[in-house]
Records
---
Amino acid sequence: MVFRDLRSAPDNALLDADIAIVGGGPAGITIARELANTPFSVLVIDSGGLDYEAEVQTLNAVENVGEPVARAGIEPVGRGYSGSQEWLNEIPAFELRNRLLGGSSYTWVGKCAAFDEIDFARRPWLSLSGWPIGRDNLQTALDKAGDLLNLGPNLYDEHLYERLHSRPTDLGLNSDLVRPFFWQFSHERDQHGEPMRFNRRAREINATNIDFLTHATVMEVVLDHNGRRATSLNVMSLEGNKAVINARTIVLCGGGIENARLLLASNALMKSGIGNSRDVVGRYLADHPRTALAHVTGRDIARIARHFNFYGLSHKGRTHFYLQGLSLGPDMQMREGLTNCAAYPVQIHAADDPWAALKRVARGSHRTLARDLSAIGRSPGMIASGLYNRLIRKRGLPHRSTELRFDVMAEQELDPESRVTLSHQRDRFGRPVPRVDWKIGSCEIKSIKRLAQVISKEFGRIGLPRPQLAHWIAMDDDSGASFTDMAHPSCTTRMGTDRATSVVDPNAMVHGIDGLFVAGSSVFPTSGHANPTLMVLTLAIRLADHLKARHAIDRGRVASGRLSQAVVKTA
């Protein structure tokens, strides 16, 4: 494995690879790992370097003409980051992308879940729903992705109960309306609490057939003169160094915005962009509209938190914790024509919360040291009960909090007018920046409201404190709703069999362009409500298997051809 930097390479260098992977984020690195120690040469190309560089991140700029927009008198909703990652809330919509080796894993919190069965199904009440592959066909790749992410078993509903060390109380919720849903968090194996960083996974690759090229921004995908096959990539560094990369196979792993942008901007031969003869590239942009549904305060926090918190289980010698929330029941989605959505608990810790104070002290923070030590010293009972909960019962820690919220992330019904196009604005390379017009439809707003209403009603029925609904939900006033993106852009190069509504085929190859593949959330046929990384890696592993088979066949043909020529010469 070799790391090359385009800034120090000879100008106009010519590089060759069997497989060129554009983007060194979780998708690209996963594909590279799967191709390690195969007979094929692989080059991973990233616009950034090995570490975060502010100058490179300016290339993430977009012209945003859609949601989220500021509305008079309505409090904007942030992305919900806190602590050392609070700065991420200030990054403009659709610019929270990371140009460096490791990609989005540089700023994520590790939250993972698999898509539900209903996410793969054809749902008559949702246009363009249904995947060309079923969840059963992805199970092997899903489990492999879970192992790579250091996750526990891929169980995310009530089937998880039997595996938990101490199972949640059966609250008697009406499963026709609302059901339990769990998330788990990917952590580094040797640093508990530190989200998995894929730059480390890249450095761990020990294979002579895998190389990396950093500070290399792809300007264009080049096709053969017939426009039927991808042949090479033109790349450039911010300092102006250029190179051409010839490859038999090219895989775009740039994310939901950049994958679409690169196809649209590669228009030297096809004026509307590669794979865009039907004007589909960039359409159907979906994210996960996020907002706060409801909240409780005071003593009600503890009564809710004891049920909606973390639960642990042992798996392959490690303890894994799952966060319990609630999602709309599939039957209710079908009956009322709703999208899939789920609510998760968020506790706002008090300034004197002893466990938050302990974490700060353990990390060496001195800014609030005196206050933290005081909070710890005044809370021996809470610390003792927390240790018992964590170590014996495998449960979440008790916190002193000022508020417990239920936040929501929702699936979107696909809208062809929600899209990424090319702006008249230009970046430092002179390329058009992405013009993002994200639209949030009435179906997902209706679904979010119904989830909030059902949770409130069900809590009252079973004797839990009824949370105070967000004002716009309580007043049934959609104009008062406020949403933010979650940096989960999806579906802009969606997978399908109909070229009129999809960009790549079920093997993730761009329709009509041999050798050009796309990976990442941009190929999701629908977005679901779950955080995308686990499914991104699942599809990446599936694609890597396809590339192995494809290149093995090609090598066999070449070998067969050589043998035939030798026979002819001998004769």
Note: The longest helix spans residues 533-570.
---
Amino acid sequence: MAQDPAKADALICEMPRIDNADIVAVCAAYGDDHHRLLDILRTLQNRYRWISPQMLSVVAAQTGQTRVAVEGVASFYSFLSLTPKGRITIRLCDDIIDRFAGLKAVAAAFEAALGIAMGETSDDGAFSLEYTPCIGLCDQAPAAMINDVVMTNLTADRAHEIVAALRSGQSPQDLISPRFSALTPYEQASRMVESNIRHAGSVLLGPVPDNAGLAAALDMTPEGIIEAVEASGLRGCGGAGFSAGKKWRLAGATPAGRRYIICDADEGEPGTFKDRVLLTERPHLLVEGMTIAAKAVGASEGIIYLRGEYAYLEGLLAAVLEERRIEGLLGRAVMGQEGFDFDIRIQMGAGAYVCGAESALISSCEGRPGEPMTRPPFPVEKGYFGCPTVVNNVETLCHAARILDRGAQWFFDMGQAGSHGTKLFSVSGDCLNPGVYELPYGMTVHALLEMAGGEDAAAVLVGGPSGTMIGRDSFERRLSFDDLATGGAVVIFGRERNILEIVDYYMSFFVDESCGYCTPCRVGNVFLQQAIAKFRKGLAGPEDIDYLKDLSATIMETSRCGLGMTSPRPILTTLENFPLVYSALVKPSEDRLRPTFDIQSAIDDARKLARRRSYIYDRDFGQ
């Protein structure tokens, strides 16, 4: 929503006075390093509630960048703002699951209580209210971020209570506990968000010994570690399914003076939240897996890229890293092994779905806009700072630690051919028991639905919007790499849901989240969404189905990153598995002319101006 210039000027007067010396000090805290530009801008955003023109100039001078380059970063990420925000920013999750769970009533309650509309900031600069895409809390929707504090299972009544408490002088943290600062980082995180572990398997969510995998790895050669991971059959758990051992081997074999391990904790796929649970319940196991990977490929530095929506977990992860440094499990001579030095820093994201692509994530870590790079070369050859870089997600690295503990054969024997071990499934939507399930690969969709209390499902989205939407006739299909592959998301939709409403939402998500680099992705997804709107209005003809297929193929073939390569899948998989939904809305006329003129849209403005309904062309009265 565009901000009124006069109101924006008034808000600037309400902002904290910008101190150039403070901006210089923030830059100095990050070594005036332009590669830490995202950290610098996040710090300034949190302190001053916006990135002002003055800040852009000072930061550019301190980091040796042009002002345009700094502004390019500031304008790329949705959690950074070039206009003033309130002291408290309330971001309501606008995922389709939140909508079905009552988001509209919650949003209306916040608007009424605050006296502002979505996208606005109060005149006194106290509050901003806006929507944000999926924040990884579909199992406890509707949800919101209040600054960096997370609130779940919201209702309209609760929204009024929250605003009243904030207006009375309570902080967002006070909403969680009056003694919030006295809680441990784990207690703070778990008070905000339930882990909702519905089924704990034998690998990740059951009992896990401390550092057993790392101890075993330190007695092995790098080649031996890689061979064990390869023999286990471990594949990347983020969706692509590339062999983890092969990725490590390629990075280790590439000649270089430095190598890096990056944990992708930026699970932004709508409906996915299993890494959130591992970050909360198994942070030591994650760091153990990263340390094992470092030993295998010869890396001395690692990064945990934590999505901005998970900022509430930053303190927990920082505490874990510090604890492990004190215990000799990170830093110089890990576990006393001379020559093996490895440490990790946390890189916070700032609201950009495209940073889930590994090359975009690396760009973000380097202080640039999170735009995907053309491949090849791949990150294992030329990644962070141009060095060989292993990028694995949270679940993959946790699995690696358990494999080194229990052995490759133990892991290989679980699951099925081509899909070994266990998988964490994030289950949400129209079911009785949303949450995380750790199950062996090969489970049928029907069996998972029975466990989750979703037997009455009419449709299931496997793998999030970039995955596959299936109907009841496909519920015996198996959750595996060779059948229904998924990074973890399983979203259940009941009989009352409108398939095209769901498709329309996911297409709007891809339109908003495209980085804009590729014309087919930037423009093509808009055209796809417009075509879906025609179907929903009953204006589509038979040729529009071919149009959807042809345009989708063009976008997937010509985009350079995973977003564009998968964004048409909500349309393509529903066309394949729910053809009657589309054909029922195709209405060719008797003279074979398609009605491209929408009389309802044409008279809508006149109807509003006249403040009366049309009794000739109003749907409620007939023609």
Note: The chain has six domains: 5-76, 88-182, 213-412, 415-493, 499-583, 597-623.
---
Amino acid sequence: MFSVLKNLGWFFRREKRRYIIGLFLLIAVGVLELLPPRLLGNAIDEIVRGSITTVSLIKYIAMILGMLLIIYWITYIWMHKLFGGSNLVERLLRSRFMNHLMTMTPSFFERNRTGDLMARATNDIRAVSATVGFGMLTLVDSTIYLTVVLFAMGFLISWQLTLAAVIPLPLIAIAMIFYGRAIHHRYSLAQDAFGDMNDQVLESVSGVRVIRAYVQERLDEQRFSDITEDVYNKNMAVARVDAFFEPTIRLCVGMSYIIGLTYGIYLVFRNQITLGDLVSFNMYLGMIVWPMFAIGELINIMQRGGASLERIDETLNSRPDVQDTANPVSVEQPTSIELKDVTFRYPSSTIDNLSGVNLSLSQGQTLGIVGRTGSGKSTLLKQLLHEYPSGSGELLISGVPIGQIALDQLHSWIGYVPQEQILFSKSVRQNIQFGLDNASDDKIMEAITAAAFQNDLGTLSDGLDTLVGERGVSLSGGQKQRVSLSRAFISNPDILILDDALSAVDARTEAQIIENIRSERAGKTTLISTHRLSAIEHADIIVVLDNGLITERGTHEELLAMNGWYREQYERQQVENNLSS
């Protein structure tokens, strides 16, 4: 049960000063709280004996009030320390969790659903933070504070009465062990269900246009209703066990009250304790009610925190498929790119997605990649991003194997525009500045002009400051592509990768963008995959892929002369262009 505290040892060591002070003051408050009942008991005994005076009564009242004020201020300090630690560990875990996600490769996100990761970053981290805050409070109160109160009852009042009153308490320990195991299992299932619900919500929101287009609103509502019902049932399963804690403790504490009161009155009549002792004892008995509840809360919190920490650690312990080598080689510039007999297969694939690819590209050259859908065009481009473990063969940059180059250095050379445009819920300006921090408006306009987006700015409500909405929902497909191109152009990368990044623009705009690339990227390497051959006619090298194999290679004129797939596709597109013009 307490393994969660052991696994959080790194945090307690880091914040040991905070917790030493907080726990010391918490224990000190527990000891000070024993004095008011004792003082009240002494006052009652003096009243019974008739020896009470105005001066002594004022003294008792002043002492009790003084104790309460001291307890108040000490309580403020320990609560600030312990619950401040709770907020701190939540911040640290969230930062660590997010930073870890930023290092993970695509295969990790193929195995883990976004909704489940969100559940771990919210509910699970919150449950762990409760463990180091409220959990530490219940741990101390259910052990040290309970022990101190029982000690005061036994040694200051009567050990016989105390022993009789605590007879029902072992029943609590037995019940807590049983309930704790059930809570751990059921809470894990509830959190998994919450992750499924998050994932469903994300899919429904991002695909709302498709849902409406196919008139699937009622079906999606029913699907969401079913999954929320599952979340409800699994959380109710947790609540049903959780609901046993308080009645069980109340029953045992009630039995302690009955035993304490009955046996206490008997001892008063036998003059073994005084009436003031019995009043003090009953006040002490009332003080152990919270520690009894704290035992139940402790089991509950520790089991929830343990289950949540297991889920968080499962993510944090995942290692990226691609990591920096221990001694990376420093490369000043990517003067050449060479693929030697490269064969690659995705981790989830059963066949080779690239087979025996050989290519050589010098700095400043442009590579065009064409082929049927699913032929491996994007896969070939992604080899340069080094997001997956390398297959067989060699991929060299400036003569150095890509695995020996630091990932940060590799990615700093590359400007990448993927097939699926990803824009952030910010303004057009901020999305473009993502490629170059704090870029000036002049720089932004240069990138926009290169992407042929300048004429569209006038159609946007606030120009550069127009919010694009989530994933660029307020922009058309062509506008999203050109904002993404501007983001890549503004960084002026050594290697520009365009993965079918011109598919949503018209032929005239495409020609303008290609001309801008040719004029402004002289001396820099560009790789373009496309279905429209007009986008790569100017390329120094063009390769045709089919099922991961290079079937044709050469310049535009050389490929036309081969009378193969390239010429057939080129002639078909020429006919289509003539018909549409």
Note: The CA atoms of residues 511 and 535 lie 7 Å apart.
---
Amino acid sequence: MFQEFSAKTSPEFGAARLAALRAELAKAGLDAFIVPRADAWQGEYVTEADARLAWLTGFTGSAGFCIVTRDRAGVFVDGRYRVQVRAEVDLEAFTPIDWPETLPGPWLAQCLPAGSKVGFDPWLHTRREIEAIATAAKDIALVASPNLVDAIWTDRPAPAAAAVRLHPIEFAGESAAAKRARIGDEIARLGAVCAVLTLPDSISWLLNIRGADVPRNPVVQSFAILHDTGRVALFADPAKFGAEVLAALGPDVELLPIGTFAEALEDLAGPVLVDPASAPLAVWQALDAAGVATLAGADPCILPKARKNPAEIAGMEAAHLRDGVAMTEFLCWLDREGPKGGLTEIDVVTALEGFRAETNALLDISFDTICGAGEHGAIVHYRVNEKTNRPVRPGEILLVDSGAQYIDGTTDITRTVAIGPVPEAAKEPFTRVLRGMIAIERARWPKGLAGRDLDALARAPLWEAGLDYDHGTGHGVGAALCVHEGPARISRISEIPLEPGMILSDEPGYYREGAFGIRLENLVLIGEAPELPGADPQRRMLAFRNLTWVPFDTRLISVELLSRAERDWLNAYHAEVLARIGPHLRPATQDWLNTACAPV
């Protein structure tokens, strides 16, 4: 099993750890300290050694932060985690804060007097983040500090030390040397002589390497300096690199100990391209202290990585076909076993991983499976553990959001299903969520639009009934890389233009606290829209093409709420599922799929 179910944190430790941190505050002469979820690589997922927020507060969500003052401790979480945080932290010690409705700068200005000093670890925050807090906090000083959590975390785990492997060229589609030269040319075009790379997925993509340093994300924790010539200084633990990997990297990639990265920054000649959205503030501080000229700009690997090439697309298609077979076998099993009343959430997660393992191609899951029965489904990113595990009862709906890492691709899929008798209260919101998902899949839009321009399409059927959801509609997905990948997404705040080759999730939802949760998700690929008679030939249009082939639970659909076009889309989709997935199933599952895909 890749997923394990022990409870990593407990509210009972929060008060004592908070008191210890406040003692460190007093010793350091600080009035507050910021504890982010992020590590030095600003990733969504962190190793156990970097899980400072969870260790201190008990909150295990993938986004958020805590600000500790002498008399307050606010845990800032967005709409995905407002139910979860109340279950995971000691509410006598910590106060959940709705974020981004309440921002850290104004909160500090309200809580602290003028002249107060707020400490932060400059390796765990971007310059943009700290500047925004400082601007809003007005007369409060933000002070770079040693990490006060590390000072009290006496049993902190050791850093990750997983071996590095090569990502085969047949799945990468482009050699590392060609990528280095191409991105080097772009660095020169921007007017820089080199770029600092701090995102592990950018570095892993650039060098066609993969690792297992971060749970569920096949990346190598590292930093890099990419010169306009295509040469790279790679800062990582040399013990992770075997002879085959070093030979493949070649003489133009110099491997150096990760501890020498900060010192190497001081020896650079500028201008140096640095991403203000992802590079730790400590990088800027090192360059500024050495008098090295900087150029603020996006990580030059982000957009090329997001635009998948034909080999990457083919790998993702193959991975999704394989994963669709495993998911369909799982759904058939669940439909048979669930109504008997003997399953728990952990049983379901274990079974699903088993069906994926039967492919004999599973490298890892792409994130810990979200499996929420009944009221747990309303916790958007619920992760079952031994303490929270509950029965999956007949008459409830079950939300299962899961994915896999294969050598050729990364998957992410959500299905919400009825366990035995269908609860009538769930049918209308389920149908509205499905309609929103279909609206995204059917969308056509002019080139140049961003995810914010499409987001409302998924919400409109819910808005009609006074409903909504507190997360984005879709995120970017890497090709045999991170399941959450920037820069494009379908969200109210996303301004990145959508481009051909990008792969996004399409996952609207609805969550009724204390009752149930609904989410439906496919992955979709952006490409040129098919031509239409009478269309303006000068106006280039884009559209989505589906990658995920798994049936929806039609028992939960109120068919009368679907338009003719929506029914046609659903029936065509299920016909395609039958054609693509059906031939690869066990005979009993083929029979089940025939019924599951019957036209509505």
Note: The mean pLDDT is 96.
